[in-house]
Amino acid sequence: MALAARFREVDTTAICDADKTLRVMESAIKLRSAQPRIFGPAYTVRCREDFLGVLRAIESAAPGDVIVVDGGARELALAGEMFARGALTRGLGGIIVDAGYRDIGFVSTCELPIYSRFVTPMAGTTGKLGELQIPVTCGGVVVNPGDMILADSEGLLVVDPDRVSDLLDAAHAVKEAEAKLTEHLIAGGTLSDGTNLSAHVDALKRGEPSKLSFD
């Protein structure tokens, strides 16, 4: 997929630099597996202290989908090793649980990207259907079915699907500008003469609109 390849060339920090209004999940949602990178559409689940809905989602989602679980930020495990293995078998793009995850001995070595708010041995029940493919809240932000999830070691972003391509273009421009500034600094230059710092500060002092940028 062309967009996925383009995402591998940038990072979430550059994407955030390109747009300060993006939905960023709380840092309490932490990586639990060996692979941080996610790029795929959200398959959403809402459940409370019961993980049947998560199992249903894993078995219903399409390859590449990212299971996003609104577990109410409660400290009960809504998934574990078997769910990770099942998701790998189905070719899913990752699992994000705003609640607990368990079986970290396996999960920590797993190549499927897995994130959760808690690690806990106590699992929920299996007597409630849960709700699938509805707007949910995960990591403090709203996630709609089909929203794109972009993640790396810096964090997790939720992006409107029709904005992904333009954001990746902007992120590439950010990385190119950063690369030029890096070369300038390695050569002995300063941040002041590698940016418009002086002009930017002067403009702000005059009350004029301005933006810090790389020269």
UniProtKB/TrEMBL annotation:
Pfam families: RraA-like. It comes from the Bacteria. Its EC number is 4.1.1.112, 4.1.3.17. Belongs to the class II aldolase/RraA-like family. Catalyzes the aldol cleavage of 4-hydroxy-4-methyl-2-oxoglutarate (HMG) into 2 molecules of pyruvate. Also contains a secondary oxaloacetate (OAA) decarboxylase activity due to the common pyruvate enolate transition state formed following C-C bond cleavage in the retro-aldol and decarboxylation reactions. The lineage of its organism: Bacteria, Bacillati, Actinomycetota, Actinomycetes, Pseudonocardiales. Its cofactor is a divalent metal cation. It comes from Kibdelosporangium philippinense. Homotrimer. This is Putative 4-hydroxy-4-methyl-2-oxoglutarate aldolase. PANTHER family: 4-HYDROXY-4-METHYL-2-OXOGLUTARATE ALDOLASE 3-RELATED (PTHR33254:SF4). InterPro entries: RraA/RraA-like, RraA/RraA-like_sf.
